Amino acid sequence: MTHYRALQAETVKFRGHNGDQGEAYYARPIAAGKYPGIVVIHHLPGWDEWTMEVVRKLAHHGYAAISPHLYFREGSESPDDLGARVRVAGGVADAQVMGDVAGAMAYLRVQPNAKGKIGMIGFCSGGRHTYLAACTLSGIDAAVDCWGGNVIVDNPKDLNDKRPVAPIDLTEKLNCPLLGIFGNDDANPTADQVNRTEAVLKRLGKNYEFHRYNGAGHAFFNTWRDAYRPEQALDGWKKVFAFFARHLASSATRIAAE
Amino acid sequence: MCSYIVEKTALVGSAKGRKGWMRIDTANVYFDHPYYSTLDHVLAIDFTNEGEGGRDRVAVELSADSARALVTRILAALASGEAAHSAPAQAATDSAAAA
To answer: Which of A14, A233, B27, B66 is most exposed, with minimal Cβ within 10 Å?
Structure first.
């Protein structure tokens, strides 16, 4: 396993949905070379410091990682204030998120360090967005859904203009390998919903692997929450990096030694 | 769990935030993952002025037990406070009647 300690991390501008210019957090190894890209889709509370830590962690492991700020259109207040406003507004529309995610992918592709393959990882609502992206966007080579709730929608009244389709209903179009990470104590998605999602993936012959953890609930990778479970999270991250290595050829080509 | 379930109420009041006192006309109340607290779920209250665009908020995050305790204290403060503030008027009326 190669680790990259010399990194560059910063806020950059990118073109998202409808060509809107937004901000994204972008981290990559400094050493000249080609690196696979990863788009990080943040969780419902917002584009927070933990999200930035994840982006840097991926860069440390040899990826050019970017997390678009999905709430940038709400204003310039702190990410938690924007997250609160988005929550009250009922969230952001799936179409907009998919446009922003596609824009982040396009940003990675034009960087001089682009190796060619792009992965995606999302947490919480970002996990659901990752599942959706893997079914509706082209060009994703590996997708990781971390405890994405509402992939299955049991009550049709929960569908609305912003989220008109349950991602599970698009599974036939899943076009890349999918890794799922779930805590068995999670209330959304529940273990039963994860089972049902897996049954659909299996029935459709999709390339997937699911890992479920006992003693862990929602957001168990998140070191900022009581929900953090170090043992399960360390193993979960190992699964994530093994998956990305397998599908993105993460042994990045380094031209110069660090 | 992550959801967009928000209980909203209009209200009359004021709140003190980073920029000092502000009029508030709305409370958005939800039980969900926090922004700041390390608890898994919090009862969050965002006091805001939607009439002025709702861009500023005074935010509170409480454990579920704390929120329930606060509800009882709010009701107790109203009961005792309203009783105390009506007592002098009653005393004045009694004095006038005795005079």
So the answer is: B66
